[in-house]
Amino acid sequence: MTAITLVPKKPSISSRVPIFFDKALENASIVIDNAAYLATKDRLYDVHGMGKGWAQFKNVGANSIDMLIEKTHKEFTDITTLTEVDFEDEVIEDAIAAGVAATGTVDVTGGPSVKAEGDLTLVSAVANAFATGTAQCTSVIATDTITVNGILYTGVAGVKANNEQFSIDTSNTACAADLADSITNDTRTGTLGDQTATSSGDTVTITTDVLGTTGDAITLAQTGGTITLSGATFSGGVTADQVIVNGLVYLGVAGAKADNTQFSIDTSDTAAATDLADSITNDTRTPITVPTIDVIATNSLGVVTVEAPINDGAAGNAIDTIGSANITAAGATLASGVSSSMDGITVDDIEIMSGPVPFDTDDDTTATNVAANITANTSIPNYTAVAVGSLITITKVEQEASTFVVVSSTTVLTTTDVNFSGGANGKSVAFSNTAISPEITALKFRFKETAGGSPGAVKSEMGFIR
Predict the structure, then answer these.
(1) Which residues of 301-336 are buried (b: 16+ CB within 10 A; e: fewer)?
(2) Which of 115, 150, 229, 296 supports an S-S bond with 191, CB 3.0-4.6 Å?
(3) What is the pTM for the complete model shown?
(4) Where are the domains of the chain?
(5) Are 466 and 45 in contact (CB under 8 A)?
(6) Mean pLDDT, the chain, as a whole number?
């Protein structure tokens, strides 16, 4: 089949009364059977007007087409009332040669997206340490007490009745051992967390289970003066350095890391940075802040550089990077990411893309995606496109000469635009009713493709110009 497209044009013969073709033809394509010469039913086109009319048939398809104006009707009437006998034979016949499509190009010459990145600098990062306190037993007597984390322990002679007591018999070493046992096995709840204890000689070392510097707030007290304390509170608690990247926490640990949620702070800043970069890159958890972006990290001399993929461009700038006491983040988020895209292409001021196409991998892939967008989009006039490497060649669907201006708009991408050229108009055949009769109000004409083919094959397009 061949589609017929109606293209308005002013009549070549002036008239006070405008000439109008059938409204249905002005708003839709008409399908012509390529065996129309043999069909019994003609395609009917209505030309309204009391004055003289003029029409032109132009091939804008890829194949040559035969045209036959078979009959005309000379008297003005409602087109719906016309019958076969109302038409007089006035035959004009000609072959309408095909045209050549003009093309223009857009070359994607560079300017990919810019990846977002940020640095984390490590200087003597530390792991968690638990706060401790000590108590030294020196000839403790019954009724002397020690209070640990708000829990009272009382010295007794002989065997203790429970873990609220400790035996002062035998020696300072035995006293310390029994006090450590009571502290470790006591089931009472202290003010802050819980604690365990060990003894060495006459000294008891008590350790909290509260991580970091928070444990330094645990209190120590004694009565009787026979127990020497390390201080009124615990000390030595250390809060581990940690890093947050894209909402995921990475904790500094002493010794080898257990998994990629940790990094070892042993040996040196460079070694710690190496281990942190490895954990960030190989972490299999789903990111939290920007779930769709997985980052990677590299290190150099204690500095970890976190990078988002280049294709994510500006979206990577939303990824958070949070350091700690001994790890400094260059910014609260990654920075410098820029999204690159082909935002649109106009031909003769008509937009031929359906929307922006983001940069993808490289210039060639991006050009291929842009060409696919143009071909899938419908514009008036309509265009197709193909990409070879980074060069996008745009072809006007209508086969005719054109010098249309090509203008591409981009973000970051650089392009080189070349205006349309190289097309050629197909042969046009004009029909004027002055050559046949003074007034024509209706025409009957038929078309078939010179190239032939079975009915239903789309091979060419006609323009019907007023």
Answers:
(1) ebbbbbbbbbbbbbbbbbbbbebbebbebbeebbee
(2) 150
(3) 0.60
(4) 2-99+425-465, 103-112+340-421, 130-229, 240-329
(5) no
(6) 79
Q: How far is CA 62 from CA 100, 208, 264, 449, in A?
A: 7, 87, 70, 10
CATH of domain 2-99+425-465: 2.60.120
Beta partners for 416?
Answer: 107
The 8-class DSSP code of residue 422 comes to -
Does residue 455 have a pLDDT over 90?
no
CA distances from 346 to 18, 367, 375, 394 (A): 33, 16, 14, 11
> How confident is the model over 380-432, as pLDDT tens digits?
888 999 999 999 999 988 777 889 999 999 998 999 999 999 888 765 555 44
User: What are φ and ψ of residue 363, in 5° steps?
Assistant: -60, -40
Span of 197-206, 226-235, 354-363 with lowest mean pLDDT: 354-363
Paired residues of 94 in beta bridges:
67
d(CA 72, CA 49): 14
